Amino acid sequence: MGKKVLIIEDDPDIADLLELHLKDLQLSLDRAVDGENGLQKALDNDYELVILDWMLPKLNGLDVCKKIRQEKKSLPILMLTAKSEEFDKVLGLELGADDFMTKPFSIRELIARIKAIIRRVNAVIEDQTSSDVSELSFGDLNVNLEKRRVLLDGRNIELTAKEFDLLALFAANPGKAYTRENLLNIVWGYQFTGYEHTVNSHINRLRAKIEKDPSQPKFIRTVWGVGYKFADYEDFEE
Fold first, then answer.
1. pTM, to two decimals
2. CATH code of 57's domain
3. What pLDDT, in 10s, does the model give residues 85-125?
4. Domain around 111
């Protein structure tokens, strides 16, 4: 039985086109024609992906994206938009969208993007570590890769999907330096080349949540002239 995808789109022609092609991927479809109904479906059901139009009646796509992220931090979201300004894309990325397609779009490219999102979500943890380790501990920080859970001093730390993916990648590769472009390609995908500043803002928010003093980070270190790295294991030895 195929996994479910939710299409939140008020244009029936686009929704019909998406449904026609997604069925070829062995995905079952749910549809909603406005933001309020789409949001409710997204929160009430389990989906592999949400395809979300930017401009919707009752509740716009950005608000839907933001509210989904508050409740379901790891649910992938692909936004469809007729807007092409960089500000719009940055705002969508900051609110938690995983990818963007600008209308009019190539259905072949859209399908490729959908496959890439699903593949990336399923493979991120595998790409983070080649071992069978599912839980990583560094001093008072515990990262459970399988449960996507982070504990700091025994307290649960709420992270967005991208914040967790960044932290898990770092924690699974302590001491390895990544450029901002590396991180963007691994966590967001190649199509966001040029949006490296999005990495910076996510790193800053992640540090604010896990570092006792974000100005003097213990876990996520800046590598000047390169990018970022997670502290080495030796840094946590007594």
1. 0.62
2. 3.40.50.2300
3. 565 667 777 777 878 888 888 888 888 888 877 776 665 54
4. 4-126
